[in-house]
Amino acid sequence: MESKEEDIPKMENPKIEVSATAILVCAARAVATNKFIRKALERNDHSMIQDEIVKRYYTPKLDDSTVHENLAYYDPYSFIILDCEGSTRTLENFVEHQTVPPVKQDLSHLSFQEQLILWKEVVAAFGIQTVLRRTKLIDSLITNHVINGDIEQIVVFGAGMDMRAHRMKLAASVTVYELDMPKVIELKKNEVDHASKVIEPISQSTIKYIGIDLSTKKWIDNLLELGFDANKPTFWIMEGLLMYLKPSAVDDVFQGISQLSCRGSALVAHICKMLNMPFGTRSFNNLLNLIHSSSSDPTKLIAKNAPYFTSVCHYTFQDIGTLFSAEDVEDNKAKPSPTPKNVVNNIETTEQQPIEDDFSWYAFAQQFQHRQQS
Ligand SMILES: C[S@@+](CC[C@H](N)C(=O)[O-])C[C@H]1O[C@@H](n2cnc3c(N)ncnc32)[C@H](O)[C@@H]1O
């Protein structure tokens, strides 16, 4: 892994913390969910969508045209999470950051629908297309290897507001372990409790939470204490996480995976390709300031730390578009407008769309051999 551990630049806006990125990703998924509902309503197909969710949260005025139909999915939990006070505060911080000069405002008077329209502007400035693609790719891997496959144990590192454990059709035999910072896990548990009163269950899996800083190796003991079985195949997910860890912690995570995996296990890792990306909006560049590691060769990274995971496939942004026949979305490239200006609810944000490009690897690897006992 390449590192900039010694010289981490100061953020322009220190309020954007790494945990806020979990809400940002959740907002991108809410926009995708709005699109999913729009299409289902157009087809008069109510088989997946829930009327109560549509009534409370669907936002017909939201411009979700940049979400390709093939990349839309149904994540009603994303609506519930965005509808909490903490998310409104996060939105305020992002909006403040996207206005020039920065303008602090109280957005709690806005309805959920009005906030979602603003969120759409915020996520567009950070890059929604990458989130849509990576979510879709990992969903399809889970479908193949867990729902239609033999794996019954999933570990989600830096789980944030990833709701696969709830929104995918996982069987009762599946256990999902979700790990993230304690305060993120606390927020998530509260919102999941709240959501369970509104959303009809889709998944039957058991979910176990671990609030932990993944820069320490304690997560291994925590998993084992909660009943994790290293002799059962596991699907390991690292989505939107590794770039925020220092290179030594990334190595530790892969080594921990290697230590706890048996034949039949699989991993998917979202890995940043380069540390200093020469593009992006001001908001996006601030996010880059949180990025501590990258790799120009995920195969080597995995071979070094988790040698029994072989046949590494790398997917790029373009590969995933091709895989889901979703290459023709207009805003995949930067809008060349010289004076970008978006006005939503009288709030003027001034960001351009970022160039959504090939700056991430999505590495998928499987373990075909037994691990040698050490
Ligand atoms: C961009 S979010 C991605 C969340 C989720 N994987 C998703 O795709 O929806 C990054 C997540 O990594 C978590 N994270 C970052 N550094 C961490 C650390 N050292 N320990 C535990 N979690 C961490 C953050 O709290 C946040 O929830």
TrEMBL record:
Belongs to the UPF0677 family. This is Uncharacterized protein. One of its GO terms (molecular function) is methyltransferase activity. Keywords: Methyltransferase, Transferase. The lineage of its organism: Eukaryota, Amoebozoa, Evosea, Eumycetozoa, Dictyostelia. InterPro entries: Ppm1/Ppm2/Tcmp, SAM-dependent_MTases_sf, SAM_mthyl_Trfase_ML2640-like. The keyword Aminoacyl-tRNA synthetase does not apply. It comes from the Eukaryota. It comes from Cavenderia fasciculata (Slime mold). NCBIfam families: mthyl_TIGR00027. GO terms for biological process: methylation.
